[in-house]
Automatic annotation (TrEMBL):
Intracellular or extracellular location(s): Cell membrane; Membrane
Organism expressing this protein natively: Kineosporia succinea
Highest taxon in the source lineage: Bacteria
Keyword S-adenosyl-L-methionine attached: no
Residue segments, region Disordered: 243-274
Keyword Transmembrane annotated: yes
Name of protein: SURF1-like protein
Amino acid sequence: MLRTALKPRWLALLVVMLLAATLMAKLGEWQLERAREHGESAEQAEQAQKSEKTVPLNSVLQASETFQRDAVNTKVTASGTWGSDDQLLVPDRELDGKTGFWVLTPLLTDDGTVPVVRGWVATAAEATAPDSTRTVEITGLLQPGEPPVVRRPGETSGLPEGQIDRVAVAQLAALWPQPMITGFVVLDTQTPADANAPLTVPPPTSDGNLDWGNLSYAIQWWAFAVIALLFWYRLVRDDHRGLLSKDDDENDDENDDEAEDDPGTKVPTGVPHS
């Protein structure tokens, strides 16, 4: 078995499989780290949502300022007026197992525009515009902007007017007044209250320190790494048992035939070998 495994072709394949397995193991570690981060972030959001402690938004994040990681899930307050005419809907957002829309409205403050997810509605028709004539004070959890969808030149989202597929700051910058913060707030409370407010979007839930979705991806990558090495072992074992010898013989015969047919390699009759 060892002599078979030391054949050049199996050694070359082993190197390839080890490289592939190493890459898969690294991807598994990355997914595990993401599972920890998501779990901690969800737990932090739950605690912040329950907490009575709030801080002014402009003490955490100024307009056009780079979003800092430690600002995620900070419970902030801000006051201003709603930019009702610029309200947008973000489709494919779930609440209690149902798919609907986030209602995304700009809050116009003295420091700039603040994107606010005011809530969730099941249908686009249910999204009413807030009163833009009075000043409101809001509290909510601060979140970083979502990554924009990468599209090919000329490609569009295909969504109806008034809808966007991500709460992406770069996309909102082209639609709303500037300056604007580089994140968004998920609304918790509003004063004075809005009688027609959409359903509140709850913070993500956590049942532990790990996000099970990312953890399952990590396990899959590690399983692929093991399968790659088992696949190599299976090929070597079959070769050792002679299960691959037929193909090898056929290949050898083909090589001999090609050598005989090639005039450059054929030895002339009567000419002694050197």
